[in-house]
């Protein structure tokens, strides 16, 4: 299970999808802490058609203040004229069932997430999130940030083999593979940020990553799949990665809108959009990833689909 890790004003590690998402994932705009937000709420302007905006960062508040907030489903209403309308902007393909606005979800520190995951008996895959503040932050460097993540696992006596630290930043991987080549570096995950086909790394690049000590490459789903003869098939990048000895993890299932819409999967399935016609095609894509690509794991915003598939095919005890 994942905790996306960032930090507060007092440099404490917390779980948040981005350092600057509190305005769309918590109730901060409905509290006095809204006054501390990096950018205050600005309503939709009907005359100029300018969307409603706000930006609240974890570094705007201390850990103690962070813990007074409650979580909500990520979303915002860009046509909002009031704060209340803005925070009620849950997309139609998501639900407030598990985080009702009247109650909200519990925000967690990184340490609290570790305690919870230990109780659940699961492996852990924290992401060292990119920062929107400049480094160093009040003397706190990027390396300090990554090291603090490691320190909290060590302090809570978690075996490095049960932790898969992820990052989009190659420097983070270099730090981990150099400092902990047989521990946290061996299980570190390089998140690929390829945006279009032209960004997909070559076999030579993949081989250089493997030679540097990186063992796990995690690109978007579309990088590992292609449409071939009207069917979903492994991509050349997937074949190349396996050939050079990289393990593979993909992201992210269940993050797109409805597959029956004209743009179906959009960005996440851009190499397959020509052949995706229904929600069931996502199970086909998952099957190809698991059986033909040989995926080690997949990130998903809702675990039901992957769990159902894994149970059907006896993969419930997969590595991660």
Provide key terms for this protein.
EC 3.1.4.46; alpha/beta; 5-stranded parallel beta sheet; single chain; 14 strands; 10 helices; TIM Barrel; 3-stranded mixed beta sheet; 2 domains; PLC-like_Pdiesterase_TIM-brl; signal; 320 residues; glycerol metabolism; glycerophosphodiester phosphodiesterase activity
Mind explaining what this structure looks like?
It catalyses: a sn-glycero-3-phosphodiester + H2O = an alcohol + sn-glycerol 3-phosphate + H(+). It is globular, with a radius of gyration of 20 Å. It has helices at 22-25, 63-66, 83-87, 110-120, 142-155, 170-179, 203-211, 236-243, 280-293, 304-312; strands spanning 4-7, 13-15, 39-42, 53-55, 70-71, 105-106, 127-128, 166-167, 189-191, 216-218, 225-228, 231-234, 247-253, 297-300. β1 and β2 form a beta hairpin. Strands 8-9-10-13-14 form a 5-stranded parallel beta sheet, with helices on one face. A 3-stranded mixed beta sheet has the order 2-1-7, with helices on one face. Strands 3-4 form a two-stranded antiparallel ribbon. It has 10 helices and 14 strands. The mean pLDDT is 95. It folds into 2 domains: 17-106, no CATH class; 110-312, TIM Barrel (Alpha-Beta Barrel), CATH 3.20.20.
Looking at CATH, which topology of the largest domain would you report?
Answer: TIM Barrel
Q: Which architecture of the largest domain does the CATH hierarchy give at level 2?
A: Alpha-Beta Barrel
Q: How big is the Rg?
A: 20 Å
Strand ordering within the main sheet: 8-9-10-13-14
